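User: Hi! I have a protein structure encoded as tokens and I'd like to know what sequence might fold into it. I'm fairly new to this, so please keep things simple.
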């Protein structure tokens, strides 16, 4: 692959293929991007290409103004959402979007996912937020760009930090996740899907299941995060 962005394309390609390997996508659904902050560009999956056919050289390089810098194919239809988030949240290194079943089911229910157990608390202390469905005037406007606005508005209204809560559900749509790298964004997509599945099953068993108590949320989160973390190597 003869490209000025070979490493960035390879990172993006591998992250997209991991979405498929983790059963988070079917057909051409979903996408991952990886950013190069120094060059102010990001790599993203081309639109409508099945994962079985995707090659590293197919990955498209786009700048933060949605201009194609390198690539023969059209970038993902969600490119403007990725660009908006990269411009507004400077610590993000990768973004993932899927239509994974349980994550989408919660998005369609228009409900936050409560912290029911320690698996959720291992990753974040907040409920996973669900942004309200997009307003009509935003839907009829620059839709994908406005999806980014929808996400930022949700975090501002709920008082959430994008560095601490690296995932969101969009009402009636589906999940977006992010992280310091494209691989971490994919990891967060899988965590979100599993937590969504566990929460769904919890409510099937006990519709009145209580939220995990604060002391356990704090304990499990701090075992893995922060200056006093002791979980792992």
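Assistant: Happy to help. Inverse folding works backwards from shape to sequence: for each of the 233 positions I chose a residue that suits the local structure. Here it is:
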């Amino acid at each position: 692959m003869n490209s000025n962005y070979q490493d960035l394309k390879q990172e993006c390609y591998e992250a997209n293929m991991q979405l498929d390997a983790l059963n988070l996508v079917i057909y051409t659904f979903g996408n991952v991007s990886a950013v190069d902050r120094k060059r102010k560009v990001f790599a993203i999956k081309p639109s409508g290409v099945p994962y079985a056919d995707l090659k590293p050289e197919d990955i498209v390089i786009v700048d933060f103004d949605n201009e194609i810098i390198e690539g023969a194919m059209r970038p993902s239809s969600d490119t403007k959402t990725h660009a908006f988030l990269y411009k507004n949240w400077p610590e993000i290194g990768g973004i993932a979007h899927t239509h994974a079943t349980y994550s989408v089911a919660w998005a369609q229910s228009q409900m936050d996912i409560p912290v029911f157990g320690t698996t959720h608390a291992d990753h974040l202390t907040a409920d996973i937020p669900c942004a309200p469905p997009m307003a009509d005037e935003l839907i009829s406007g620059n839709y994908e760009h406005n999806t980014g606005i929808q996400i930022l508005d949700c975090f501002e209204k709920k008082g959430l930090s994008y560095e601490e809560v690296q995932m969101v559900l969009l009402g009636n749509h589906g999940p977006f996740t992010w992280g310091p790298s494209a691989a971490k964004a994919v990891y967060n997509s899988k965590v979100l899907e599993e937590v969504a599945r566990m929460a769904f099953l919890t409510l099937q068993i006990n519709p009145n299941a209580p939220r995990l108590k604060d002391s356990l949320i704090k304990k499990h989160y701090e075992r893995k995060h922060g200056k006093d973390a002791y979980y792992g190597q």
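A useful reference point when you look it over: The beta strands are 31-36, 41-44, 60-63, 68-70, 94-97, 130-131, 167-170, 174-179. Feel free to ask if any position seems puzzling.
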